[in-house]
Every structure is written in structure tokens, then in C-alpha cells.
Amino acid sequence: MNTKEHRQVLNEAFLVNRKLKLEGLIEQNKSSILAEIAQLHGIVSTSIVDEIMLLKVSYDGSKLGMNDFEHILNTFNCQFATDWWSRCKLNWYRSIDNNIRDNAAHVPHCCNKPPAQ
Question: Quick one: 95 exposed, middle or buried, by C-beta within 10 A (0-12, 13-18, 19+)?
Fold first, then answer.
């Protein structure tokens, strides 16, 4: 199943593309998982590559993160792959997502003025 849905990007600066292998995915749940993920605010596109059970998702990193997708997968008794490389990628993606959210929330100030209290 290679279903894609494209939406307008909320903030181009925070657009991220992620690819992670899945475990426990069954054919009957693929469309339901994609539908649940597509309903999240900030999703640009989502698809599952059947041959290798790969979740491909593009989203606004200031609004969403890997934990949001993991929660949806867990409701369908599915999860991200647990091999060494997949765990490294997942942890790296989580770190990047946290940095993106922190940067999106940052309010810059001018060098000549003290920060607002």
C-alpha cells in the first residue's frame, strides 16, 4: 500500500521527513493507521511502503513529534522496529523534534535591548 496525501505545509522552516521501519503491522490496519496519522494537525504527507514495512511521513516539527506517531501505532498493536539502527534513528529523530519545538517557541530579542521579563 503506497497511499499518499499531501497538504499545505504550516511552516516550511520546520518541515521534516522521517522514514522508520515498523513491526507488528498487519494488512487490515494499514489504512486505519494512515487515516489516524493524516488527521493530526501538522501532517503534510504519509505513506507506508509495503515491501519493507516502512512508514514515511512529512510533518511540521513544531507541532508534532515521534511520540505522537508512536501513540497511534500502539493503539493498533504496531510499533517502530526495535533493531539497533531503528532505535538509533528513532532517538535521533526525537532529539531533533525537541530542538525544533524549542526553536519554534523561542522569542528572539535585539542585541541592544535587555530581554523582556
Answer: exposed
Q: Where are the domains of the chain?
A: 12-105
10 in Cβ contact with 45 (< 8 Å): no
Contacts of 58 (CB under 8 A, 6+ apart): 15, 16, 17, 18, 43, 44, 45, 46
pLDDT tens-place string over residues 64-115: 999 999 999 999 999 999 999 999 999 999 999 999 998 888 777 677 666 6
Sequence-distant (≥ 6) Cβ neighbours of residue 35 within 8 angstroms: none
**CATH code of the domain occupying 12-105:** 3.30.70.100
Query: How is the chain split among helix, strand and coil, in percent rounded to 5?
Result: 40, 20, 40
> What are the beta bridge partners of residue 45?
58
Between CA 41 and CA 83 the distance in angstroms is 30
Q: In terms of pTM, does the model score above 0.85?
A: no
The cell numbers describing 90, all together, are 528513532
Q: Is the model's pLDDT at 34 over the cut of 60?
A: yes
